[in-house]
Design goal:
With 153 residues, the chain is mainly α. The chain is built from six helices and two strands, in the order ααββαααα.
């Protein structure tokens, strides 16, 4: 939990100019950041290797800030409130699941982040069969990014 709090403190330092964004901007930036991450992974059938950790972490931080911008725009909540709510959610889920995110470390989190991005893009295209709130998925994306940033040294 301490590492999570350290990452959120770092994020708080970078949010002073969170201006509202459009949904189209959010989606286009998210696609670019997803591509950036995938381009710096070496993926084989039974192997995933990170080619450049700095670029991966920079893009994960950008995704977390983008998710925060989206949430402040579309929920009309203040960023500090969103950060606190997500920290509380992380603590509760960590209690329920244990530290399962540690089982596959950063790579497991990147896979979960990619799943969330793909889910958001599918919701955007309205090709969903399960009714899921987009803001809830963006919250999950934000939290996975924050957790992944705890692995940055």
């Amino acid at each position: 939990m301490e590492e999570y709090k350290k990452v959120t403190e770092n994020i708080k330092k970078k949010i002073n100019n969170l201006s509202p964004i459009t949904n189209n901007y959010f989606i286009s930036e998210l696609e670019i950041l997803q591509e950036n991450i995938l381009n710096f992974l070496h993926i084989e059938i039974s192997l995933i290797k990170i080619k450049n950790e700095k670029i991966i972490f920079d893009n994960l931080e950008k995704i977390s800030l983008l998710a925060l911008k989206y949430l402040t725009t579309f929920t009309e909540k203040e960023s500090i409130q969103i950060i606190k709510e997500n920290q509380d959610l992380f603590e509760k889920k960590n209690n329920d699941y244990g530290c399962s995110y540690k089982d596959f470390t950063l790579l497991g989190l990147i896979v979960r982040i990619n799943d969330k991005i793909n889910r958001i893009l599918t919701i955007e295209k309205k090709n969903t069969m399960v009714d899921e709130d987009k803001c809830e998925t963006v919250n999950d994306l934000y939290n996975y990014c924050i957790i992944s940033l705890t692995y940055r040294n």
